[in-house]
Amino acid sequence: MSKQFQIAVFEGDGIGPEITQPCCELMKKACQRISETDPDNSISLAMTSLAAGAKAYQSLGEALPKDSVEQARAADAILLSAMGDPEIRYPDGTELTPQIDLRFELSLYAGIRPIRSIPGVPGPLSDERSKHIDFVLVRESIEGLFAPQAPSKMIGDEQAEETLVITRAVSEKLFDATFALAKQRNAKRITCIDKANVFPAFAFFRKMFYEAATRHTNSQGSSAQPVVDHAYVDIMSLNLLTRPWDYDVMVTENMFGDILSDLAAGLIGGMGYAPSADIGDSNAVFQPCHGSAPDIAGKGLANPTAMFLSGAMLLEWLAETQQCEAAARAGKLIVDAVDAAFATGELKTVELGGQSGLNDVYKAVDEALDNINLI
Ligand code: ATP
Known about the structure:
Elements: E1 3-10, H1 16-37, E2 43-49, H2 54-60, H3 66-74, E3 77-80, H4 98-105, E4 110-116, E5 134-140, E6 153-155, E7 159-161, H5 168-185, E8 189-194, H6 200-219, E9 227-232, H7 233-242, E10 249-252, H8 254-267, E11 277-279, E12 284-286, H9 305-321, H10 325-342, H11 358-371
Parallel strand pairs: 1-2, 1-3, 3-12, 5-10, 8-9, 8-10
Antiparallel strand pairs: 4-5, 4-11, 6-7, 11-12
Adenosine-5'-triphosphate binds next to loops.
């Protein structure tokens, strides 16, 4: 049976539009190539561009227009590049963060951040094992230190207060998603990252992690069980630098996840290589881990790889949630094309000190996608 998926697209600000356009082209082409091999089960993507971000704020007066949210909610999946511009702010001086507001609007509690070394892309570690880094960081994405129900408080010019919120309702869903992902990956280790020795909120977080472990490992029967453990965020920052290959699936609070995911992206070449998904019960947003990088916008220097891999994750998620084998194959085709493009080591992106700009990467991935033999 042929399927068409409705994809809401936020091309955003800064480097957003430059990396979104080639990503959409690749996603459509991947679907087309897969469909040609099995026309009875063809898939296509109907993409609708929606307004949000700093540019939208300037022209419409709203960083995340209600209409855009509702159209995104109704779509099968949402592709988002990056939003915000430090030069365009609310009257009180704070930066626009519509991409974070969208997570709250759609209740996207599970931030999935896969970190995988792409063969041919050099990372900063000299150990041979760093060529095979492959783990996923799950970042809780709607509460923790970012919780909107506990806004920042200023007491005159003397004191500032932030509140960290951990709820059972969200944590249980987060841990269920984490253990489901671990099962899917056949993970050998699932690690909770916290600061339970100092903050009761993190002790609570860890307690619920182990409750989920009991639920999930019991339901997995007596076959080989993964290691389930925990670590403090400070030592994890060290371990991720010294032995990232020892980890498989990790789960943590929003702020810790925000920081650790940048560190983790550094292990595989930089922000331009790290895709992500923010998943809720009914919606999911796919976007690169990086921001709108206004410093390099419009110069053709951005690395679009993280965006391409986010597009691949979107297709894989559609495959899983809508039982569509063709979408899984299209997602894998993009990942294979990215790997093939970088495999020789000739493609060296600007963020790694090379000369390969946005178009060079796009062309190489596009060519690889054309040339991969599909059976
Ligand atoms: P945000 O807070 O919105 O996540 P940020 O402050 O972390 O944003 P980014 O926009 O992610 O900042 O950029 C951080 C640095 O990384 C910038 O110097 C930028 O040039 C670089 N960078 C980010 N994304 C890419 C990319 N895709 N390709 C090349 N360089 C990038």
